[in-house]
Every structure is written in structure tokens, then in C-alpha cells.
């Protein structure tokens, strides 16, 4: 009977291989030429300067610098006395969340924040990206989790414990091959992520031009040479002057309404525990923060009342609105989907469209308004009330211009959903192959065939 490997060093039989193999292991310290703890002090924060790598910058094995923190050159010099992070180095968090890892890419200069350790792999015996994936593997992560509750106030992965972690150690050529297979999947995932960012940026830039900066109206009002730059039938939809409103100057003939006039608030709720054997797409705050990928879970594992999420809906977080969480969800007509009650579930009211309300909810003025609605004294649990959100003032353009915007933007945003589906497929394949390759259960040549068939 075939089985999944649970321990490094066991002989295992692969369903794809005729022979048995033994996976040797070495301690983390033996894989590295350097293990350096972070300075145990808070960096001196600055508005610009040298990057500081923080725990929130580590996501799924990569360094995510979408939210950047900085320190001065002088502080940087102090924090890298033992070692400056270099391309190919690995950083790992040693306090909650413990065991999150990322590799330093080319062209990035920075220093460690608090609660991090720098690992410098020994290239004579260890492929850096292989070590990254080994540290991400379930068996090593399970060992790291045994250190939860070991600190006096918070869980702490101490340096001796980190150095003593057992890491699989196949021959270096095999490490290179494993790293190449898993790395190629991660590269495709990263390409999809960047494509999504580009597509969303294009849709949002068009929204800003038309409905925030009013570029076509200004061009006509100022009789600019070349006009609006739009085809004449489209340019003719825009007026050539402005009028005053409670939101300031807006195009003549447009009006100010409520957000609740633009969207329908969907209030249906469901208790997944009532259907314990049914599969649900669970849209939660953590799932949004971890890459906007809902968890597929049985109802029996979802412990509280949730809001239903129908096809065509979008989500807006009421919790801590200074953190922008607007989710264009991908839900099929037959999917059972629920979300945290911390989300407001909404759908566009005709003649408005999904692409219009999504870009509206992410626009600068709307974000500033919603941040002003918070209640609660705890910084980590501030909320905006639903009725206050629905009563926010928004500019309402004519339906003909909304339709024209949707003609361009909906295609861009629909493509982002396709990219996310591809992302989920690639990530699931990577997560399936990673423990099997690291443990030796699956041989490289067979993994290459599997990846080739999918990609």
C-alpha cells in the first residue's frame, strides 16, 4: 500500500517510481554559512530611505513590498553590522507568525526589522530556493509549530531550535531540479499577479480620468487642441462645463447621490453548520489578506453565521476601513459562497455596473470618506456602520457614460478573475508537489511531466 511520507530520512515508495529511496537530512545550520538574528530594537522609521523588511512583507514564500517601511542610512548601517541581506538570502520570522519565509530577490536593498532571522545558504551544498521550499514544506512547518507557546509573552522560535531543524538534503543537482520545478510554478504565479495589477490599474486609471479628474470635461471646457482624445461619439457624451455641488465642482448635468443609490446591499445570511457536508467558498478577511483566494471548506468547519455571496456581487470590508479591502469575487451560479459578516455584500443597481461600483469603492475620495466613519476605541477593531457607508455621497454620471466605461473596464476586470483562477490552479499544483518532491516521494522526472501537462 502506498503512503505519504511524514518523516525525513524514511525509505519511501513513490507511485511513479519502481525503486525505494532514502532521503537524507541535515540541520539548518549545516545548510548555511551564516545564521544571523535581527537587532532586538525597533528601527528608526523614516518616510523614505532604505527598506526595512517586516513580517507583513512575507507572503507565500515571496517578499511582498506593496507596503513599504523605511529607515535612514545611518540606522541601516547599524542594523547590518553582522550581515546585510543579499540576493539569495532567506529571511524567516521567529515570532508570531512563526516560520514565514521569503527569499531576497535581485535588486532589493534593505535590512531586517524585528522578529526575523537571516539565513545565508552554502552554495556548495544547498540550493537557496530549495532551502526556501524545504522550510515551507508541511513537515518542517509542523516542527516549527511545536515551538508555539515557548516564549514568555509570545511564541518564539529560538536560534538554537531554528539551527537544529532537520531539512531534507538530496544531492545538489536534484535540489537544483526541484527548485527549478517549484520555482517555475511560482514564476508563473508571480506573472499572473503582476498581470492582475496591470489590468486593475488600467481600469482604475480610466475611472479616475472620467469620474474623479473629469479629464474629458476639462478638455472640452478649455477647448484644448486635439480635444478629449476620445472618439467623437464618446466625447459627445461629456458636457463642456461644470457646476457646484456638495462634493465640489462636478460636470454640468451630473448629480450627487448616495452610495446606496448606486448599489444594492445584499443581506441574506446562512449558517454553514446546518449543511456540514456541503462545500462552501469562504470569503474571509484573512483569505483576502493572503491573496484574495477564498478557502474551500466544508460547512461543518465554518463555525459562525455568514453572509451569502451570490454571483455578480462584490465585497467591502467594514472592519478597519483604513485598510483597503474591496473584493471583486469570482462566484459561479452553482457555487455556495459565504463571507465574513465583517464584509458588506453589494451588487450594482442598474444602470450602474459591477466595474463602475468596484472602481468607485476603491477611489480616493470614497476611501477618505469611509475612513471618517469609524467607530470603536480599539485601533485593531474599528468599524464603519453599514447605513453610514450607504449614505456616503457619490457623484452619479449619466447612464450613457457608465455604459461606455463598462464597455472598456469590464473586460479588464473580468480578465483579472481569469488570472486568479489560473493562479489558484498553479498554487494548488505547487502545494501538492512541494511536500512530495522535498520528501522524495515523487521523483523529479515525473513531476516535470505533471507540470508540463498542466502548464
**Estimated radius of gyration:** 26 Å
Side by side, the strands of the main sheet go 19-22-25-20-21
* Beta strand count: 29
Largest sheet: 5 strands, mixed
Mean pLDDT over the full residue set: 90
Throw out a few tags for this protein.
Adenine-n6-DNA-methyltransferase TaqI, Chain A, domain 2; alpha+beta; five-stranded mixed sheet; four-stranded antiparallel sheet; globular; 455 residues; 15 helices
Topology:
Layout: E1 11-13, E2 20-22, E3 25-27, H1 28-31, E4 32-37, E5 45-46, E6 50-53, E7 58-59, E8 62-63, E9 70-71, H2 73-79, E10 90-93, E11 101-103, E12 110-112, E13 116-121, H3 128-136, H4 138-145, H5 159-163, E14 166-168, H6 172-211, H7 215-221, H8 232-235, E15 242-245, E16 248-251, E17 255-258, H9 259-262, E18 263-265, E19 269-270, E20 279-283, H10 285-289, E21 295-298, E22 306-308, E23 314-317, E24 326-328, E25 337-339, E26 343-348, H11 354-361, H12 364-371, E27 374-375, E28 383-384, H13 386-390, E29 393-396, H14 399-439, H15 444-454
Parallel strand pairs: 6-12, 20-25
Antiparallel strand pairs: 1-2, 3-14, 4-13, 5-9, 6-9, 7-8, 10-11, 10-13, 15-16, 17-29, 18-26, 19-22, 20-21, 22-25, 23-24, 23-26, 27-28
Helix pairs in contact: 3-6, 6-14, 6-15, 14-15
Amino acid at each position: 500500500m502506498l503512503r505519504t511520507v511524514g518523516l525525513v530520512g524514511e525509505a519511501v515508495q513513490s507511485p511513479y517510481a519502481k525503486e525505494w529511496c532514502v532521503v537524507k537530512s541535515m540541520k539548518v545550520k549545516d545548510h548555511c554559512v551564516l545564521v544571523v538574528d535581527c537587532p532586538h530594537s525597533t528601527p528608526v522609521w523614516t518616510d523614505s530611505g532604505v527598506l526595512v523588511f517586516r513580517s507583513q512583507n512575507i507572503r507565500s514564500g515571496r517578499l511582498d513590498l506593496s507596503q513599504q517601511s523605511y529607515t535612514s542610512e545611518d540606522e541601516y548601517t547599524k542594523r547590518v553590522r553582522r550581515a546585510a541581506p543579499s540576493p539569495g538570502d532567506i529571511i524567516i520570522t521567529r515570532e508570531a507568525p512563526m516560520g514565514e519565509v521569503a527569499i531576497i530577490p535581485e535588486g532589493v536593498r534593505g535590512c531586517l526589522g524585528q522578529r526575523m532571522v537571516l539565513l545565508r545558504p552554502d552554495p556548495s551544498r544547498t540550493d537557496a530556493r530549495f532551502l526556501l521550499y524545504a522550510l515551507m514544506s508541511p513537515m518542517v512547518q509542523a516542527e516549527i509549530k511545536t515551538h508555539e507557546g515557548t516564549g514568555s509573552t509570545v511564541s518564539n522560535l529560538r536560534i538554537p531550535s531554528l539551527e537544529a531543524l532537520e531539512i531534507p538534503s538530496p544531492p545538489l543537482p536534484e535540489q537544483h531540479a526541484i527548485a527549478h520545478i517549484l520555482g517555475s510554478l511560482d514564476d508563473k504565479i508571480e506573472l499572473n499577479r503582476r498581470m492582475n495589477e496591470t489590468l486593475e490599474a488600467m481600469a482604475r486609471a480610466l475611472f479616475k480620468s472620467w469620474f474623479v479628474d473629469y479629464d474629458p470635461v476639462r478638455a472640452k471646457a478649455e477647448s484644448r487642441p486635439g480635444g478629449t482624445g476620445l472618439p467623437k461619439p464618446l466625447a459627445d457624451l461629456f458636457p463642456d462645463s461644470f457646476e457646484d455641488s456638495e462634493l465640489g465642482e462636478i460636470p454640468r448635468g451630473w448629480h450627487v447621490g448616495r452610495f446606496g443609490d448606486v448599489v444594492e446591499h445584499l443581506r441574506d445570511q446562512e449558517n454553514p453548520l446546518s449543511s456540514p457536508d456541503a462545500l462552501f467558498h469562504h470569503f474571509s478577511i484573512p483569505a483576502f489578506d493572503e491573496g484574495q483566494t477564498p478557502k474551500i471548506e466544508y460547512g461543518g468547519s465554518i463555525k459562525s453565521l455568514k453572509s451569502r455571496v451570490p454571483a455578480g456581487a462584490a465585497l467591502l470590508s467594514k472592519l478597519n476601513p483604513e485598510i483597503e479591502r474591496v473584493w471583486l469575487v469570482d462566484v459561479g451560479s452553482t457555487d455556495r459562497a459565504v463571507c465574513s459578516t465583517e464584509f458588506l455584500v453589494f451588487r450594482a443597481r442598474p444602470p450602474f455596473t459591477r466595474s463602475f461600483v468596484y472602481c468607485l469603492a476603491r477611489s480616493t475620495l470614497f476611501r477618505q470618506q469611509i475612513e471618517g466613519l469609524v467607530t470603536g476605541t480599539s485601533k485593531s477593531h474599528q468599524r464603519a456602520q453599514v447605513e453610514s457607508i450607504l449614505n456616503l455621497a457619490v457623484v452619479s454620471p449619466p447612464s450613457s457614460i457608465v455604459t461606455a466605461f463598462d464597455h472598456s473596464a469590464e473586460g479588464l476586470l473580468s480578465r483579472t478573475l481569469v488570472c486568479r483562477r489560473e493562479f489558484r490552479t498553479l498554487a494548488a499544483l505547487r502545494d501538492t508537489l512541494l511536500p512530495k518532491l522535498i520528501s522524495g516521494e515523487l521523483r523529479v522526472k515525473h513531476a516535470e511531466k505533471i507540470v508540463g501537462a498542466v502548464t
